[in-house]
Amino acid sequence: MKKQLIACLLLVASSWLSQSVFAQGQGVSINKIIAKIDNYYVLRSDLEESYHSYVAQNQTPPAKCQLLESLVINKMMLAKAEIDSVVVDEKQVDSQLDTRMSYMIQQFGSEKNIVEAYGKSLEMLKSELRQQVKDQLIVQKMQQKITSDVKVTPREVKKFFDGIPKDSLPYMPAEVEVGQIVRFAKATKEQKEVLRKRLLDIKKLVEEGRDFAALAKEYSEDVGSGQQGGDLGFAKRGAMVAPFEAAALKLKPNEMSDVVESEFGFHLIQLLEIRGAEYHARHILLRPDYNRLDITEPTRFLDSLKHQIEIDSIKFEKAAKDFSEDKSTADAGGLLRNPETNGSRLAMDASMEYALFHLLDTLKVGKISAPIPYRTEDGKSAMRILYFKSKSNPHTADYKLDFEKLQNIVLTNKKNRAIDDWFRKSVSDVYITVDPEYNDCRVFGTSQSSAAGGSASSGGND
Questions:
Q1: I want to staple 285 with a disulfide (CB 3.0 to 4.6 A). Which of 89, 110, 222, 361 is the partner?
Q2: What is the C-alpha to C-alpha distance for residues 225 and 221, in angstroms, rounded to an integer?
Q3: CA 403 – CA 405 distance, rounded (Å)
């Protein structure tokens, strides 16, 4: 049971990697290495930041020993990934980093506010966060590798459900299915002209002899590639958005494009090399101010689309697939997904976004809302209409009604057991020591975590 708990905590611990660079760290004692896993370390500040991340989110933190075990497991995943040559695509890292930075800018209001809050340059914060994002993705990839063959059958789900005493069946909150169609706010003509002029000015600087890479580091708002001088590496045809790729492939090596507009903003592109079906380009990206975009056109469009759906000229699901600009939900007919179950049923309780909860409380099942403002996870301004597809009332857990949720519980349990087995088999492949200060934690069931073949040693100062 203990190992299953640790494995379960691992799923939570991976999120700490993306948060710790921005943790305030107030009240944290002088840094000290408290665990070593091959060439990876757990610092006392890591443990404190993990603890305070729960407090900051108004959640009850697990015991610090459990947090330490989770951090050790994460580092063990990284150590084993290095041994097994498990790597992640740098473009995926850049994409995740862009999303995290956009979210932080949204939360703090501006890049300047972030710098003032943490006393570090934005470049330093991005650099620290980038490695943590990369580590998180590697951990996730290791988890997927370990559990890729784990499946569950309806018979296993039924056996699990039947094994719960009838008087102990949980009481399930009301659940809803909600669809959305999203249209992004558009840059005004004036905003577009400002961005085009800025990029043309930058292009002129390059033509006068300034270094493209240096200018990309200075001006590009593509956080990931900007640090690399705008370098996007080699890309296969079809990997980039169509306007970018079409413009890039018209160029000769070392030639620059005119200003190119895409869904991500405005680009100045320089082609570096073509190699078979791949091409190597770099760019400088400027984005419009998402807080000052024009919502007139998306509001008008959605209002008209709402009317077409209501008079049955088009079904909501098809309208979402054809017209929604939110790619994560469009292919599913606009249905919002539950991140815990990956299903379409959302608990209508305190865990739901407040604005969504409030709207559904006033909207009837089967109805579509008027266009309402919406801010995406990466900070983009948009408008959306919501379709209240279905609602189930609060009830005692039922096998048929709650099959999706029960199936996810059984699958999670089996994955945890698979991870347990992996740890038992892999612990001898890495060298693990824990500072004597944490002897009582009995990481991996030993008083000094010497299961990997070495005695525990006291961590030195960082």
A1: 222
A2: 9
A3: 5
Fold of 189-287: Chitinase A; domain 3 (3.10.50)
Q: What pLDDT score does 458 carry? A: 35
CA distance 428 to 154: 36
How far lies 4's CA from each of 64, 146, 215, 413, in Å?
17, 15, 50, 8
Residue 256 DSSP code: B
Q: Which of 371, 383, 322, 379 is nearest to 185 (CA)?
A: 383
- Cα–Cα dist 187/431, whole Å: 54
DSSP H or E segment with residue 452: none
DSSP state of 294: B
Domain ranges of the chain: 2-151+404-445, 171-186+292-396, 189-287
250 band by pLDDT with thresholds 50, 70 and 90: very high
- For position 61, what pLDDT does the model report? 81
Long-range Cβ contacts of 352-357 (<8 Å, 24+ apart): 356/178, 356/386
CATH fold of 171-186+292-396: Chitinase A; domain 3 (3.10.50)
Nearest to 50 by CA among 72, 29, 71, 78: 71
Give the DSSP letter of residue 30.
S
What is the rounded distance in angstroms from the CA atom of residue 160 to the CA atom of residue 406? 8
- The size of the chain, in residues, is 462
Helix (H) / strand (E) containing 122: helix 122-147
Who contacts 91 (Cβ-Cβ below 8 Å, separation ≥6)?
A: 224, 232, 233
What CA–CA distance (Å, rounded) separates 403 from 401? 6
User: What pLDDT band is residue 30 in, cutting at 50, 70 and 90?
Assistant: low
Q: What is the pLDDT of residue 158?
A: 95
Query: Which SS3 state, helix, strand or coil, does residue 397 take?
Result: coil
User: Cβ-count burial of 287 within 10 angstroms (0-12 exposed, 13-18 middle, 19+ buried)?
Assistant: middle
CA angle 395, 401, 402 (to 5 degrees): 85
Residues 420, 430: Cα–Cα separation, whole Å? 16
Q: Which two tokens stand for residue 63?
A: 């015991």
Instruction: State whether residue 78 is helix, strand or coil.
Output: helix
Residue 191 structure tokens: 């905003």
| Residue pointed to by tokens 């590798």 | 145
